[in-house]
Automatic annotation (TrEMBL):
<comment type="similarity">
    <text>Belongs to the class-II aminoacyl-tRNA synthetase family.</text>
</comment>
<dbReference type="GO" id="GO:0003676">
    <property type="term" value="F:nucleic acid binding"/>
</dbReference>
<keyword id="KW-0963">Cytoplasm</keyword>
<dbReference type="GO" id="GO:0016740">
    <property type="term" value="F:transferase activity"/>
</dbReference>
<comment type="subunit">
    <text>Homodimer.</text>
</comment>
<dbReference type="GO" id="GO:0005737">
    <property type="term" value="C:cytoplasm"/>
</dbReference>
<dbReference type="GO" id="GO:0004816">
    <property type="term" value="F:asparagine-tRNA ligase activity"/>
</dbReference>
<keyword id="KW-0648">Protein biosynthesis</keyword>
<dbReference type="Pfam" id="PF01336">
    <property type="entry name" value="tRNA_anti-codon"/>
</dbReference>
<feature type="domain" description="Aminoacyl-transfer RNA synthetases class-II family profile">
    <location>
        <begin position="130"/>
        <end position="430"/>
    </location>
</feature>
<dbReference type="InterPro" id="IPR012340">
    <property type="entry name" value="NA-bd_OB-fold"/>
</dbReference>
<keyword id="KW-0030">Aminoacyl-tRNA synthetase</keyword>
<dbReference type="GO" id="GO:0005524">
    <property type="term" value="F:ATP binding"/>
</dbReference>
<dbReference type="GO" id="GO:0140096">
    <property type="term" value="F:catalytic activity, acting on a protein"/>
</dbReference>
<keyword id="KW-0547">Nucleotide-binding</keyword>
<keyword id="KW-0436">Ligase</keyword>
<dbReference type="InterPro" id="IPR004365">
    <property type="entry name" value="NA-bd_OB_tRNA"/>
</dbReference>
Length: 430
């Protein structure tokens, strides 16, 4: 019976064959322990000299790291292993012998590992992070599908900047200027006017020259937009979504979280509702904490966000930022013209902002005014204005950065480990 490591629990006491790679190996004169991986998981293969042909034992002793093999053996329960099973090997067929695999069990520098990212992905740690990433994606589709959202794919090539910034990658689109998308939001607003509740999941690009552990040049965003949904309802959807994702990872990635040494007690507390603090109160809080350099109207940096997050056990919403700090499309506060109906969701443990969202302007005249204030070309945004011309309604949305969320939930320090092939300021390889 041919199977995978992830399915061996179905075949206890039976003989199976698994296609695998040798992650590691140790042997003595009478027994060899093979650490096998096949993508679905890791299992130990035990080869006892007295129980197999001499040639098979010699093959086992000679196996090198990352050699590919077909291994046949009997599945047995193993209470000493966190995985719970091991394979008592009866036969080994070498598919391809690996020689001088560059990433060994010893310590390697970050730059070396990044240069060999295509091979580093094979390690137990990176395997665990990618499995958690996959579970977050699965749980995302589950949440939005179960709550009546329709998946929509916005374009990656656009003719204008969704947030009116200059941090864009420009290219030629035949005889026109085009840009790699930094957000699908404006297109998702159009989709929400057609389908009510929509979400996108796709790559975005920011030409931001930042080297911090929180930044990538290319990253993935989940961007829901909802018609007839106002500010407070928007926050409720966000906290329900994040809670669902975290609890799904806790339920379905127990081994991976353990492999990463993640303190799951902190994740177990992530249940809606989440605390909220206004920008005004956040400024007061930061000054009381000794941040004398921060003034009303200043944006928050990583130290400020971390200080605020440390006051809570859950993600915290910072609400009602000054109008001047936020993009042109955000709805003003009904009682104040100096702040907008927006919120950033700050993850615990120093991982920073994972969601930015707001109620969107639905009044055409006000949106035109904001566009003039931001010096945005009317013709490029004509279609966006028309969303307010033909049956405009209050609507809201948000964007969650997948990689920061993966980093936070898995507990890795840098977002470069939370995406298969990171694009950083000085890295376009591999």
């Amino acid at each position: 019976m041919k199977t995978t490591i992830g399915q061996v629990h179905k075949f206890v006491g039976e003989q199976v064959t698994i296609g695998a790679w040798i992650a590691n190996k140790r042997s003595s004169g009478k027994i060899a322990f093979l650490q096998l991986r096949d993508g679905s998981g890791f299992i130990q293969g035990v080869v006892v000299k007295a129980e197999v042909e001499e040639a098979i034992f010699e093959t086992a002793k000679g196996l090198t790291q990352e050699t590919s093999v077909y291994v046949t053996g009997t599945v047995q329960e193993d209470t000493r292993s966190s995985f719970g099973y091991e394979l008592h090997v009866t036969n080994i067929e070498v598919i391809h012998a690996s020689v001088d695999f560059p990433i060994t069990p010893k310590e390697h520098g970050t730059e070396f590992l990044m240069d060999n990212r295509h091979l580093w992905l094979r390690s137990r740690r990176q395997h665990a992070v990618m499995k958690i990433r996959n579970e977050i994606i699965r749980a995302t589709y589950e949440f939005f599908n179960e709550n009546g959202f329709t998946k929509i794919d916005p374009p990656i090539l656009t003719g204008s900047a969704p947030e009116g910034t200059t941090e864009l990658f420009a290219t030629k689109y035949f005889d026109e200027d085009a840009y790699l998308s930094q957000s699908g939001q404006l297109y998702m607003e159009a989709a929400a006017m057609a389908l009510g509740k929509v979400f996108s999941f796709g790559p975005t690009f920011r030409a931001e020259k930042s080297k911090t552990r929180r930044h990538l040049i290319e990253f993935w965003m989940i961007e829901p937009e909802m018609a007839f949904v106002e500010f407070d309802e928007n926050l409720e959807v966000q906290e329900q979504y994040v809670s669902h994702v975290v609890q799904s990872v806790l339920k379905n990635c127990t081994l991976e979280l353990e492999r990463l040494g993640r303190d799951t007690s902190k994740l177990e507390q992530i249940q809606a509702p989440f605390p909220r603090i206004s920008y005004d109160d956040a400024i007061t809080f930061l000054k009381e904490k000794g941040f004398d350099d921060i003034e009303w109207g200043d944006d928050f940096g990583a130290p400020h966000e971390t200080a605020i997050a440390e006051a809570y056990d859950k993600p915290v919403f910072i609400t009602h930022y000054p109008t001047g700090l936020k993009p042109f499309y955000m709805q003003p506060h009904p009682e104040r013209d100096d702040v907008v109906l927006c919120a950033d969701l700050i993850a615990p443990e120093g991982y920073g902002e994972i969601i930015g969202g707001s109620e969107r302007i639905h009044d055409m005249e006000l949106l035109e005014q904001r566009m003039k204030e931001h010096d945005l070309p009317h013709e490029a945004y004509k279609w966006y204005l028309e969303l307010r011309q033909y049956g405009s309604v209050p609507h809201s949305g948000f964007g969650l950065g997948l990689e920061r969320t993966v980093a936070w939930i898995s507990g890795v320090e840098h977002v470069r480990e939370s995406i298969p092939f990171p694009r950083l300021l000085n890295r376009l390889y591999p």
